[in-house]
Amino acid sequence: MKKFINKPENFVDEMLEGILEAHPDQLTFCGNSKRNIVRTKCKDKVGLVTGGGSGHLPLFMGYVGDGLLDGTAVGGVFQSPSAEQILEITKHIDNKKGVVYIYGNYSGDIMNFEMAAEMAEMENIKTAQVIGNDDVASAPKGEEQKRRGVAGIFYLYKCAGAAAEEGANLEEVTRIANKAKASVRTMGVALSPCIIPEVGKASFSIGDDEMEIGMGIHGEPGIKRTKLQEADQIVDQMVEPILRDLSLEQNEEVSILVNGLGATPKEELYIVYRRISKILKEKNITVFNVYAGEFATSMEMTGFSISICKLDTELKRLLSKNARTPFFEQIDLNE
Amino acid sequence: MKKFINKPENFVDEMLEGILEAHPDQLTFCGNSKRNIVRTKCKDKVGLVTGGGSGHLPLFMGYVGDGLLDGTAVGGVFQSPSAEQILEITKHIDNKKGVVYIYGNYSGDIMNFEMAAEMAEMENIKTAQVIGNDDVASAPKGEEQKRRGVAGIFYLYKCAGAAAEEGANLEEVTRIANKAKASVRTMGVALSPCIIPEVGKASFSIGDDEMEIGMGIHGEPGIKRTKLQEADQIVDQMVEPILRDLSLEQNEEVSILVNGLGATPKEELYIVYRRISKILKEKNITVFNVYAGEFATSMEMTGFSISICKLDTELKRLLSKNARTPFFEQIDLNE
Known about the structure:
The structure is a homodimer of 335-residue chains. Chain A is α/β, with parallel strands linked by helices. Chain A has 2 domains: 8-183, Dihydroxyacetone kinase, domain 1 (Rossmann fold); 184-315, 2-Layer Sandwich (Hypothetical Protein Tm841, Chain: A,domain 3). Chain A has helices at residues 11-22, 83-93, 107-122, 153-165, 170-183, 231-246, 266-282, 313-320; strands at residues 27-29, 36-39, 47-54, 71-77, 99-104, 127-132, 184-192, 210-213, 224-227, 253-260, 286-293, 302-311, 323-324, 329-330. In chain A, strands 1-2-4-3-5-6 form a 6-stranded mixed sheet, with helices on both faces. In chain A, helix 3 links the parallel strand 5 (99-104) and strand 6 (127-132). The N and C termini of chain A lie far apart (47 Å). At the A-B interface, helix 1, helix 6, helix 7, strand 11 and strand 14 of A face helix 1, helix 6, helix 7, strand 11 and strand 14 of B.
């Protein structure tokens, strides 16, 4: 295991300490745990909370900030945060306008967010839940409720976050998050595994000349393992199922997210985007904007994912809004 | 070689095609080569041009945009761009206010920028040059002119770019770039090499349990190869020479850049920052702001660098200004 760490058991807490030390004007913690990350300056608006395991930066705490989320419950590496953490954050950020939970479709996360929602209700805090399930590789069409949440959750955060920042109410923010959820699909590919610090060895093995399409961000099995192919061939196999699943038609408009899983250079992400662009041009689908970089990672895993989000006027407007966190800044050119 | 590419010989041009397709509102090319990257909308101000080899994204073209640079000449992987490319960009962006070349201290780059400057003079374009040489590991104090330019060049771009955007003249922009150059020092460490696509194999080998402190971003030899140590120990050996070289005193203010070389997870960069923060607190040095992420990479190399930039009121103001490129956005909170 070749990592820049101290004791493996301190990986998460030392990482968090570093983040809180680096960005005290933007991030702090609340309640009984430094793993309860919230904005330093709370805002009087509907609250947005996420949470999940560590090892995916900028997921999840990288999306806590202006125009995005208000808090995140941080778990151990690839482990769910506790219901208590989620409740403490909920109480801290609630302004009597309610709180929306947006998180990925993993059983541990669902269980703990559900429990937190029940406890919040007993404290008279209204909550709503939207569960990201954008990974088309993880279950067939018709069984969307079985699909994992991966990088596409960015679009839920961004659009719902912008709506909340504008003063939308609980129902409206929830509607927007659900609309973004219905509009985004993702597919991933991996070339190498990552190592959980406390485990010390790779969670799966893959040949020096192999790739696996559809792999999840915790190394969940994909749909096809083959010899490594050229970038264009790989992209073709990833974009086609997404377009089919989204039933995208000519003249529709989309946002593209090419997400590095950890060790993949930006140069390669743009070689990937080049092919996506060609495919969409041929189909007369318009690209509204492109995000390329690391948005949801699996530590040092080599791989990438492609997310396509179908846009209408409302989502385009929200997607364009200013956002500012220590991990993500976006300037709205219409302002 | 496990990369997401097509034919290795098309690596650079396909990457550029992807970038230009993804960000047409911000980046385009000029003259006879798609490797001459410039802003889509030129501004009436002193021009700022950089250039260098590919394989270092976001260096160099990632810093072309509002509040930063106007153009960059892109070379092959780890190869200098030509003097003709630099000249074409210079002519394209010049508004009779002169052009400042800011680039790293590598002999090929120096030769070609010098030649471009001479050719520009014949066309009545005034130029100035500032050569980044922040890598303290590459030559001892007193021999600064031998030091390589690495991630710290970000501070030259950012401060000079902000000054030019405000309307500063050629002499003033050059003065600011030189001031940032005199204020910043960097030290790197690597755990694994990268592979140049057309070469197909690693440029050096390093043991599974080894690290090399002081390695350059093209794999240039460092100052010490040892068994892999804990993050805190590694950081101590990197920060101490930087502080000594900068002669930093109590109560001074600095900006910190923790730069991933390609495959290092953000989690680890923050474990690194945690230790930097502790060291600086003990010395009563104040941290003005922190950048953590990939600013100057070596494709899929595992490693990171630490840059420390000493700040005064002028540099703090310029460093805080808005910037927007497809690879870097920063919102000025004072505006």
